[in-house]
């Protein structure tokens, strides 16, 4: 089974940037989703990248976040810019073949 490890989260001021990484082991990383879960809320879709590089974003992050992949490194990235307090949450990456990981905490202060 593919195992994914998220990293790159942290505390940042509104307007700042972070880059999250999703590193895969146990198999090649294929179509990969980023989700997030804010305190007291349901997990929500953020972005997806297909094996061929096609991307899609939620309306709330489009034009601010960019998902990309490095097949040689077996890693998917989420570049987040112009961060807002409402972007705060635990960010998870997921493929069809993987389980949910621990996620990485992103906190955006006003």
Architecture blueprint of SSEs:
Elements lengths: L2 E5 L2 E4 L4 E8 L6 E6 L6 E6 L5 E3 L7 E6 L4 E6 L8 E6 L9 E6 L1
Parallel strand pairs: 2-10
Antiparallel strand pairs: 1-3, 3-8, 4-5, 4-9, 5-6, 7-8, 9-10
Summarize the structure.
The chain is mainly β and 110 residues long. The strands form two sheets. A six-stranded mixed sheet has the order 2-10-9-4-5-6, with no helix packed on it. It has a four-stranded antiparallel sheet with strand order 1-3-8-7, with no helix packed on it. A hairpin with a 6-residue loop joins strand 4 and strand 5.
Descriptive terms for the model:
four-stranded antiparallel sheet; mainly beta; 51% strand
Write a structural description:
The chain is mainly beta and 110 residues long. It is built from no helices and ten strands. A hairpin with a 4-residue loop joins strand 7 (65-70) and strand 8. The protein is globular. The protein starts with a strand and ends with a strand.
Beta-strand content bin: over 45%
Oligomer: single chain
Q: What is the average of the pLDDT values?
A: 96
What is the makeup of the main sheet?
6 strands, mixed
The count of strands amounts to: 10
Query: Which term fits the overall shape?
Result: globular
| Secondary-structure element pattern, one letter each | EEEEEEEEEE
Poorly predicted regions: none
Helix content: under 10%
Distance between the termini: 40 Å
Radius of gyration: 13 Å
Query: Strands across the major sheet, in which order?
Result: 2-10-9-4-5-6
Q: Number of helical runs?
A: 0
Secondary-structure-derived class:
mainly beta
